[in-house]
């Protein structure tokens, strides 16, 4: 029995259409998993909601915002960023599972665009992030948060959040391709917490010991937190350091650097997989 292998497209436009079509096919595969395993998706959406309720109501009464203001309005932009960070663990888990089960190798043996597997994974995770942001926006409004900035500023803030998630997605793809067992995945997911908490998401770095506050200020996540607070018109912690005064700029630069590092690493790792 012989199997007919379709001719590969020729020319840049033909290859682009081929890559987009195959990438969308892989994306649909990921979306199909959502419908078959809704518990995983729902759990991922509920976790940041519980974090908002816990910090906003359990600890919020003891929190003071530098310069005054409502702590929940201070908190919600930080939770938006934390949601983008926690999504990276889902990326690592999904990519590693496909690799270790041989699904990735099967895709690589098929006459499909080489970029489709990685691009499809990225698109699926970005759609998941949009859904997570929508849910958290609704929860934020329910607990008293409000975007006081203009429509343009609000859209720009959402764009910065998704830009961060896009960069972290490629970091997650690389680590997912790198991990060989559940121990590595657990390590990556565990590191999300100290990296995420050592930011300005929950408290102002000025309240930390000097050296720790400096690390928190220069954490790439803090730039997105500060920029989104400013664009949403929510209370911020201020800060007179260079990194604090240029938060919006660095909220673009940091994700660009992360993407520039981990995108080529992901492509290289994917090309050199042996099974």
Provide a compact summary of the structure.
By secondary structure, the protein is mostly helical. Helices cover 75% and strands 0% of the residues. The chain has helices at residues 12-36, 38-58, 71-100, 103-109, 116-142, 151-178, 182-197, 210-218, 220-232, 242-245, 247-271.
Could you characterize the architecture of this molecule?
With 275 residues, the protein is mainly α. Helix content is 75%, strand content 0%. It has one domain (13-271). The chain has helices at residues 12-36, 38-58, 71-100, 103-109, 116-142, 151-178, 182-197, 210-218, 220-232, 242-245, 247-271. Helix 2 runs antiparallel to helix 3 (71-100) and helix 5 (116-142) packs across helix 6 (151-178). The longest helix has 30 residues, at 71-100. The two termini are 26 Å apart. 40% of the residues are buried. Residues 39-273 form the ABC transmembrane type-2 domain. It is a multi-pass membrane protein.
Radius of gyration: 20 Å
Mean pLDDT: 85
**What is the number of helical segments per DSSP (H or I, 4+ residues)?**
11
Euclidean distance between termini CA atoms: 26 Å
Strand content: under 5%
Low-confidence stretches: none
Helix content: over 70%
The total tally of domains equals 1
Strand segment count: 0
Main sheet characteristics: none
Rough outline: elongated
Family: Belongs to the ABC-2 integral membrane protein family.
InterPro entries: ABC2_TM, ABC2_TM_bact-type, ABC_2_transport, Nod_factor_ABC_transporter
Protein name: Transport permease protein
Keywords: Antibiotic resistance, Cell membrane, Membrane, Transmembrane, Transmembrane helix, Transport
């Amino acid at each position: 029995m012989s199997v007919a292998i379709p001719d590969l497209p020729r020319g840049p436009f033909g290859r682009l259409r081929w890559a987009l079509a195959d990438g969308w096919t892989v994306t649909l595969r990921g979306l199909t998993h959502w419908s078959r395993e809704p518990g995983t998706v729902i759990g991922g959406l509920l976790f940041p909601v519980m974090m908002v309720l816990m910090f906003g109501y359990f600890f919020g009464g003891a929190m003071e915002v530098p310069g005054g203001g409502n702590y929940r309005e201070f908190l919600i932009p930080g939770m938006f960023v934390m949601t983008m960070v926690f999504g990276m663990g889902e990326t690592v888990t999904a990519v590693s599972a496909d690799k270790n089960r041989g699904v990735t190798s099967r895709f690589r043996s098929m006459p499909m665009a080489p970029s489709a597997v990685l691009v499809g994974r990225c698109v699926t995770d970005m759609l998941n992030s949009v859904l997570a942001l929508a849910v958290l926006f609704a929860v934020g409004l329910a607990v008293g948060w409000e975007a006081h900035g203009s429509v343009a500023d609000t859209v720009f803030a959402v764009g910065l959040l998704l830009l961060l998630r896009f960069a972290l997605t490629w970091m997650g793809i690389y680590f997912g391709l790198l991990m060989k067992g559940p121990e590595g995945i657990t390590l990556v997911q565990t590191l999300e917490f100290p990296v995420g908490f050592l930011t300005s998401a929950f408290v102002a770095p000025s309240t930390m010991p000097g050296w720790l506050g400096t690390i928190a200020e220069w954490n790439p996540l803090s730039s997105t937190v500060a920029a989104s607070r400013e664009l949403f018109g929510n209370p911020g912690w201020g800060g007179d350091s260079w990194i604090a005064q240029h938060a919006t700029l660095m909220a673009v630069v940091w994700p660009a650097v992360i993407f520039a590092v981990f995108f080529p690493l992901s492509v290289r790792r994917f090309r050199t997989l042996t099974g």
